[in-house]
Write a structure and sequence with these properties.
This protein is mainly α. It has one domain. The protein is 85% helix and 0% strand. Helix 2 crosses helix 3. It is flat.
């Protein structure tokens, strides 16, 4: 785990990009191949839980350690920096999507 909030935010965006790329590009290969069974919703729920756990780790682990160490203000600042960097990265992704969408 990195102690840099900007790296944590970039890791979160990277995880999302990898996950979405797999679903977006992988679905073309699986169209009509996979039968709908109970395992599809189980897989989606498991992916959601994994994502929530990973994001919780990336966003909360260091701030909680700092708060438990008695450095409350530093922990809050770390959390807000991580969320802020993630918000900026998210805005860049959305702007990129809008720009690419208008060019196509």
């Amino acid at each position: 785990m990195t102690k840099n909030p900007f790296y944590n935010a970039i890791l979160a965006i990277g995880y999302i990009a990898i996950l979405v790329s797999g679903v977006f590009y992988g679905s073309a290969y699986l169209d009509g191949v996979i039968q709908e069974t109970i395992f599809l919703p189980m897989g989606f729920l498991a992916t959601f839980v994994l994502s929530a756990a990973l994001m919780g780790y990336l966003f909360l682990y260091q701030p909680i350690l700092l708060i438990l160490d008695g450095r409350r203000e530093e922990g809050i600042r770390f959390f807000l920096k991580t969320v802020g960097a993630f918000a900026i990265a998210t805005a860049l992704v959305i702007i990129t999507a809008l720009v690419v969408g208008t060019l196509v």
